[in-house]
Amino acid sequence: MRSQIFTRKHLAALAALPLAVAGWLAAAPSQAAVPPAPTAKAAGPSTPQAVVDYLKQISGNHVVSGVHNKEPLSDPSQYTAQAHSLTGKWPGLWGGELGFRASDVANRQTLVNQAKTEWDNGSLVSLTWHMCRPDVASCEFDGGINGSRLSDSEWQQLITDGTSLNTAYKNKLEGAVSYLRQLKDAGVPVLFRPLHEMNEGWAWWGGRSGANGSARLFRITHDYLTSKGLDNIVWVWNVKDTDANNGSAGVSGFYPGDDYVDVASLDPWNKGYPTNDWYQALVNVSHGKPISLAEVGTVPTPSQLAAQPRWAWFMIWAEYLTSANSASGLQTTFNDSRVLSQGQVSVPTGGGGPTTPPADRSGPVVGVGGRCVDVAAAGTGNGTAVQLYDCNGSNAQKWTVGTDGTLRALGKCLDVTGQGTANGTKVQLWDCNGSGAQQWTAESDGHLKNPQSGRYLDVPGGSTANGTRLQIWDRNTNPWQTWHLPT
Fold first, then answer.
1. How many Å apart are CA 48 and CA 485, to the nearest integer?
2. For a Cys-Cys bond, which of 101, 274, 334, 396 suits 375, CB 3.0-4.6 Å?
3. Which residues does the chain have with pLDDT short of 70?
4. What is the C-alpha separation between 290 and 10, in angstroms, rounded?
5. Cut 0.85: pTM above it
6. Final residue of a domain: which of 311, 340, 369?
7. Considering the domain boundaries, does residue 2 fall inside one?
8. Is residue 487 part of a domain?
């Protein structure tokens, strides 16, 4: 098949689509509670850290739309083009596949060319790899990836340096190095998702929990590609919402460690959309890192995205774009004010190497009446009340605004009691645990949002009396929801 590299010139051709398609394009009403999308910047060389920082920035407020383009690699943007024809928008994330059949491996250059084009057009770039067994050069999906499980003895060889299977695996990784290096040289950061859905055993690399299981192979993969100077990779770790291996409670047994993961992601194929236990499992295991929906069949609705606001992107899987979605459903989500498309993605650019992450900031949090957020009696026990009180410069009023989304004082975190989401739920001090109850997003007008509940830090009735217990409440324009954070 002829190589097709989709650029802006295709807009003219797509504009000539039948009027029936054009008639589908109806924008959904915007959500007033969602702040405006970040201002887009022109594409250019960037870094993985800049991408991660951007994903942290939008977490809780916005989500990037995405579509995966599976094989054949000779047509690397067919599903992205379909999404545009149905919604009038180019997705903000382009997904590609490194390939497993010999014919697709031979077209990796076409894939890389498309990835550069998508980045230049203003989309994030994601790569998945359905890799054949290490001892097989090329394969079909069934029998070569799915259903080709290694024996326990073979697995031990695979994760042991110097064995034939370990060497074969690294040689297979080597086959992708030159293509990933081209993207590095072009200044394109890659959201790379190897060994996906590793908590389920359908693929030869998956289903093995523990230190020497599937997570170990992820670390080997990371260390090998990093040793090749590929510092343009954003490492995306991925699990599936399976009941196998203790379900959501067992995901930590597959986590490679914070030093190996930049983004934690979920494929909610069994439930259709993440149940709360899976959402919370990803929040907990990610330790403040961005989380994403790396594969979905049915596009998330605006209400689902608002209820689970920390997803940084969703990626619709290839043919499911049309087989599992209506045009109207796609349009409703893609036109939602929370959802970012191509050209709205704002990753800082510049070729000067990785950016320095922003530092934590410490000091008082000042609210209505000039009073401060205070830990009652400077207590450090779990459940200690957090209140409004005269500012006095004590450690009970010294809050650290963490780059991980937390507010910390006296070694603990500002927490929504019981992970509650109802108006009037009180806030407290609690051990930092990475949960959504401890995530806070500062908005430009001074509002402080807890994305998990969708509600805001609030002083009941606007009272300025010392000892007034703080709570969460629906966003409003009252001055007692305005907070001044340390600079």
1. 28
2. 396
3. 1-44, 350-360, 487
4. 33
5. no
6. 340
7. no
8. no
How high is the pLDDT of residue 403? 72
Where residue 187 sits, what CATH number does that domain have?
3.20.20.80
Q: Which residue has tokens 């394009």?
A: 25
DSSP state for residue 397 in the 8-state scheme:
G
- Among residues 240, 308, 311, which one has the least CA distance to residue 272? 240
pLDDT for 359 equals 56
Closest CA to 112 of 132, 90, 97: 97
State whether 377 and 455 are in the same domain: yes
Q: Into how many domains does the chain fold?
A: 2
Q: Are 326 and 415 part of one and the same domain? A: no
Q: What pLDDT shows up at residue 487?
A: 67
User: What six digits make up the tokens of 380?
Assistant: 């450090």
**Cα(366)–Cα(445) distance, rounded to whole angstroms?**
14
Distance separating alpha carbons of residues 475 and 454, to the nearest angstrom? 9
Angle in degrees, CA 262, 263, 264, rounded to 5: 130
Residues 269 and 365 in one domain: no
Tell me, yes or no, whether 55 lies in a domain.
yes
Burial class (CB in 10 A: 0-12, 13-18, 19+), 120: middle
Alpha helices in 393-470 (DSSP H): none
